[in-house]
Amino acid sequence: MSLALYTHPDMLAHKPGFNHVERPERLSAVMGALDEASDLDLDRRAAEPISAEELTLVHPRAFVDMVLRSEPEIGRFSLDPDTHIAPGSVNAALRAAGGVSQAVKAVVTGEANRAFCAVRPPGHHAEPESPMGFCIFSNVAVAAKQARNLGLARVAVIDFDVHHGNGTQAVFAEDPSLFFASIHQWPLYPGTGAPSEHGVGNIFNATVAPLSPREAWRKAFESLMGPLDAFAPELILVSAGFDAHARDPLAEQQLEAEDYAWATRAIAAVARKHAGGRIVSSLEGGYDLEGLGRSALAHARALQEA
Asked: Is 198 designated active site?
């Protein structure tokens, strides 16, 4: 089957600062790896900007308006200590959120079966009322709310970024129609995501110690698949961060590209059982360019084949 790919070159214009790890080259590395893979059947689609109204599914309008007004004409403006914007950043953030929501609409309506959104800035740390950790808008959480508005009763997010998706969890925690499962290094930024955090029975966190072997990560990941299966999602979204790769500078995990393919196949098995195979994946972290490109390619191949 073909894999819908949502991206846009305007997202390269988001330049948060000299030596900032969330740099435009990240998207170039992902797209370079995908472009060189002759075995991929990609249905390439332009990620269009999301509307301010759609963002209010998660973010208060006052927050959205603040972000829209904050982009400087020159230089940079700091939304939080790690999250900076420059000319072109707001358009990039609107396209990042828009691409994921477009993908969800296409998959829910049957126009596509699966999609990978090669987008930046990432989104899973953004809280409803505050940007955080390189993230401006909560891309995946907004898209999950879109899926609910399109008539789905149960929507799940699996987050395998090495950092806990605190923003997504904050949006989902009181809504039993939404399911959130995260595997992440512990301890590590942002300091949330303890296994004791359960929401209304819809939140599942699996933690992995620094320098754990790949087998430990896989075992922890497998512990999330049972609750996901029991939830019986009608759509699965993936917060696809690749910063648990052994090469990544921001964490201390040991994964290789094939571990991401393995995890993707496990997610796809649940999607085939309950959701007609429907999966939408969105790029989150991953800061070593070589590890990021290899891992994103392995993930995309598994999405297409599994």
From this structure: no
